[in-house]
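Q: Could you fold this chain for me?
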Amino acid sequence: MAVFISHSFQNQADFENIADALKQRGVPYWNPAEIKPGASLRDQLRAAVERCHLCIFVATRDSLKSSWCGAELGAFWGAGKKVIVYMAEGSLTEEELPPIVQGDAWERRISRIADHAHEVIVQAMKHADGKPVHRASPVAQLSVGQFEKLLAGVVSLGAASVKDKESPQNYQDVETALKGVAGMVLAGFRATEAVAADFTDNWHNKILWVDDKPNNNLFERQAMESMGLQFALALSTDEALSILSSQRFGAIISGMERKEGPREGYVLLEAVRSKDTNTPFFIYANSHAAQHQNEARLRGAQGLTSIAEELVEMVVRSLPIESSTAQVDRG
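A: Sure. Below is the predicted structure, expressed as structure tokens.
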């Protein structure tokens, strides 16, 4: 259960004030910063509306002219979900509001808006018998087999994190690595669990990994498989393009150098981007140099790294529900 704050980009200050008030009351809300660049804005907004139980509409003359705000209000109205109107502009009257929200609860004080939102969310989270719903931790819901798979992922990512080092200094080095990646694996598990709950199809959790020596990345794949991700493997650029012609993936990982050439990762990237600008593309190379990372991004990749932990983190962050710092003009 969460709150959707419909607002014009010009009313960002009002959005932040409402968000702060909701935070103080422990009310979750959807943040537009979660919008991922390159992916369909319409689809992301639709998914956000579906996840949210309540809409707070920041009513100003700017938002009344915003086609995005009109679409958001229409989506909540059509879904039969509650809308609370915050009259953020003092001179605005109820008669100037869109007909679909006239007569809905409205208020000129943010504190009252936040209190009302809190009441609505609390009521929505109660069972028919009146007892609050306490969501169990995803880890607490694991079967024995799932938990074993999760632990295996922690060990695999820990192994991947130290495999390229000359040698760990001592046991504490390995222990520190394992503790660090354990949190990452758990975070990834929660992320993929949420993705699975949000989408009826399953391509979002599938990754195409292109490398002519796939055994070199076994630990990394095992770690991500423990998070719920699935893999298809391709040994060449041609094989990868053939697979992509008939299947969709949540992300693509490619090595840089293959038998076909020393910069084959870019050959594949260019071929993919000529037809697909949305699917996240990551290069797992032998370099971590800043200039190589910059070149990869300029060519259309979401990231380049030689570090296992960083690769896993980038891939998990690319999942549809993961946060981004992107700001979108919704005015």
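A (continued): The beta strands are 3-6, 29-30, 54-59, 82-87, 106-107, 206-210, 230-234, 251-254, 281-284, 303-305.
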